[in-house]
Amino acid sequence: MTKTRDGRARGRGGRLPGDESLICPPLDCGRTGALLAGAPLLAGLVQLPAASTAAAAPGEAPRAATDTGPVSVSVDTLTPSAPTEGDTVTVKGTVTNKGKQNVTDAHVGLRVGPLLNTRSGIDTVARDSTDVQSAVGPEVGDKYAEEFDKLTPGVSRPFSISVPVNKLNLGQDGVYQLTVALSGQTSAQQWEQTLGVQRTFLPWQPDEAATKSRTTFMWPLISTSHMTAETASDEQQTPLFHDDDLAEEISPGGRLDRMVALGKDLDVTWVIDPDLLASVESMTERYEVSGEGDETVVGSHQAVAKKWLTEVQKAVADKDVVALPFGDPDLASLAHNGTSVTGSLSHLKEATDVASETVESILHVKPSTDFSWPVNGAVDPSIVKVATSAGADKVIARSDTFEETAGLSYTPSAPRPIGGGTTAVVADAPLSTAFQGDMTKASSSTLAVQRFLAQSLTLDLQTGKRRSVVVAPQRTPSASQAQTMAEALDALQNGTWSEAQGLPAAARSEPDSAATTKVPPASSYPSSLRRNELPKATYEQIARTQDKLDRFKVVLSDQSRVVTPFGRALNRSMSASWRNRQSEAAIYRSGIESYLDGLIGQVRLIDKSETKLSGRSATIPVTVQNNLVQGVEHLVLRLSSTNPTRLEIGGNAYEEHPVTVSGGHSQSVKFTTSANANGRATVVAQLYTQDGQKYGEPVTFDVKVTEITATVMLVIGGGVLLLVLAGFRMYTQRKRAAARDAQERDDDAGEDAGDPQNPEAAGERLTQEPGADAKADGLEQPSDPAPDTAPENADPSGTGERVDR
């Protein structure tokens, strides 16, 4: 007990004995609370100097207009979240003295404030939830409080208060302000006062509502991009992850593990990025993770991945499943910065086409693919146009950007026909943003749950119309945020004013004719979101990489080994998860392009040095090397002469040959050349695809032509002439000698004929060798002339390549 300034004893809550009548019915609490709040205010005006002096005690600054007080009050649990008749409300929490003075004769009590019948009123109370200056209503009876003799600075003390709901004097259905307040005194202000409060909300709908809201809660399974475009050269194409963070998310207690464990018992619509499922499925087999430098390590979370996928399959069975385009592309960035880049929209179409097949093959359920979800549900005409370009005819927007313009006094139903057969499904912003922020503290989580339920009940009580309400929370809730969402949704689905509904059913429900159907203009798009969009350079790099991929794939014998991993990686490059991570996004895109460049470079021409051509014609070999695992085909190798008047190739300026090279092999292609003049000629070897597109870098080399020249012919001719002259001289000399010999023989014969003692002389001439006369007469023929080609040069060959002749 404390004493008033007139010496009378005062009970808790500042009530004098016999003041129990101040506990008023809820409908009168506002008036009574104002009177109670006004009494100390008037006293303060009368004793202003004294109060000011007390407030300016040493060590403490004067309080601001909105004062949180020196004591912090946290509400860690409030059960049940939405009580009904016969329940007992239990509030547990902690009080902490954050001031510099002891707090004495303190107690924590509950105060029920007036009925809050507007959603904006709920927001106002939540914004000023710790302000001790605002009227907080009368305190519930003395027995429903917890006392503290002293609170030392920096010390926290727990409390627990349980009150039967019938003691709270709740009246008509609706949301009541519930305040947990600590009252006490300090050495500087030695009278009882409110030193700390925490306001929250108590939804009160004890009976089943006549008209229940149909609430759709989107439960997102989305992560950031983890897989690269790179795969190993083995048969299974072992994938490479740029990190192993996904394993942490799906491991027990991880974010995605909690999302599945909590969502399986709730009536929700699962909104899934197929990339997440494909990535986890890749982890069920052998996979690798980038390490330091160029090193990789083998992943070891196969069992975790298999278990998580099994749990997802169980959780989504018989539930509504919506598949987003593969990689969850950022539709707003694409609309604002990508449509001017050729081919950007085709990636969205590919991502949409592959979504259904991916989800169905892994989860064995048929998903809906006709929903698109821009970041934060912010839309403008260009976003809607892009979002529906790939076949989706329902765009999930949010009410804080798709605002009502008709001045409705209630929240209209979610679906809005916006023309062209497209429906905007407008999620409720207060409900969708209720679980953002740090939910690791029990007090933050509890306050978020109560605020969510308060907004939901107030929305339901706005009108007797049955409406469809959609909740689209943040894309990647943390584990603590997921826990808070599950607690709120469990309380809602077990409550009395709402019933669950799937997203497809919500989109098909009857729209409110009074609701706006006009898409907000581009000028109303939030600047905070625009600043974080993927820039135009993103789509230019993606287009450049796609162009290289298109030229590369046509030469492959098995295109799927390259087209599929690169196509999915380019989809990931457009993901909304890259927002606020521009440098990481640029590194990821550059990694894709550089890896593709490396693969393209595995099929190349071998460099050639200078080639010598010693003759009028020869063949020149050019080698194509294929270091890929698979074979390449549909390539054409062209060898061109830059000076065809000197050196022709295939009788023209160039010659082409088709090329097919098996994986890991080389192939040499020979080209026929003919020289027309001496000198050096430059030739260029270039690979082309069959449609005439250049492939890879060209190889340029020189051909040195060394034909037989006129000077050489003169030298050879002079040599032949000398040989002929020498032969003629020898012939003349032999003829003269033969004539002398014949004359001598005639002379000897004449002498022998006149000598009867020598009869053999005549017989010797008769037996002379046939043809001897012919020789003697000079009828012998010279040898065949020398060939008209010079002998091969016996000198050492030059440094250039030799060619086939």
From TrEMBL:
Basic and acidic residues bias locations: 762-778
Transmembrane segments: 708-728
Record keywords, A-Z: Membrane, Transmembrane, Transmembrane helix
InterPro entries hit by this protein: DUF6049 (IPR046112), Ig-like_fold (IPR013783), TonB_box_CS (IPR010916)
Protein's UniProt name: Membrane protein
Biased composition (Polar residues): 69-82
Residues making up the signal peptide according to the UniProt record: none
Compositional bias ranges of the Acidic residues kind: 744-754
Keyword Transmembrane helix in annotation: yes
Superkingdom assignment: Bacteria
Entry's Gene Ontology BP terms: carbohydrate metabolic process
Stretches the record annotates as Disordered: 1-22, 59-86, 502-529, 739-805
